[in-house]
Amino acid sequence: MGSSIDFDYIIVGSGSAGCVLANRLTARGTSKVLSKFWIHILAPPT
Hints:
This protein has one helix and two strands; from the N terminus they run E-H-E. The protein is α+β, with helices and mostly antiparallel strands and about 45 residues long. Strands 1-2 form a two-stranded parallel sheet.
């Protein structure tokens, strides 16, 4: 398999609160954070 990357924290949902949390967790430079987000667009009814 390929190489792996280790993270100290995983934040799912990177809205404004998730971004603030990631910023605070990485402020000292000693933690690795993976911030995962996705956009869900609903199709209009047919």
